[in-house]
Amino acid sequence: MKKPADIDGYIAGFPEEIRVILNKLRETIRKAAPGAREGINYGIPAYRLNGKEVVYFAAFKNHIGIYPAPRGVDEFKKELAEYKGGKGTVQFPLDKPLPLRLISRIVIYRVKENLQKEKDKKK
Q: 3-state class of 66 per DSSP?
């Protein structure tokens, strides 16, 4: 796959059924992080707020990955335990509905974390 110039280009590179899922994911992220800037970083869609990463996503053959995922946070441990992934990643299988409410909560958590870091930096 050619390196995309923007998120539209990234999504366009996938089959229709995956594009539908990615567009729903994109809309969910936009609603949860309205001030975040969209772009491509490391060749995948990225959202930044105050110059810091909020969340990335990527589509693969069998799943959609979200990075970073707050696996170590008590609020998400139980829900994220059912999904594969590493320390800071979560893989949502393509053969199941995307848990958009959970993803929204993760993005909101990451936005709050980002804003808190910005406040702490200014102190």
A: strand
68: cis peptide before it, omega within 30°?
Answer: yes
Query: What is the DSSP track for 8-37?
Result: HHHHHTS-HHHHHHHHHHHHHHHHH-TTPE
- Which residue segments constitute the domains of the chain, with CATH numbers given? 7-122 (3.90.1150.200)
Neighbours of 122 (CB within 10 A): 6
Reported pTM: 0.91
Report how far residue 47's alpha carbon sits from residue 23's, in angstroms, rounded to the nearest whole number: 14
pLDDT value of position 1: 58
Contact 107, 115 (CB under 8 A): no
Average pLDDT over every residue of 86-106: 94
Q: For 94, phi and psi rounded to 5 degrees?
A: -75, -15
In terms of Cβ atoms closer than 10 Å to its own Cβ (0-12, 13-18, 19+), residue 114 is: buried
CA distance 123 to 111: 19
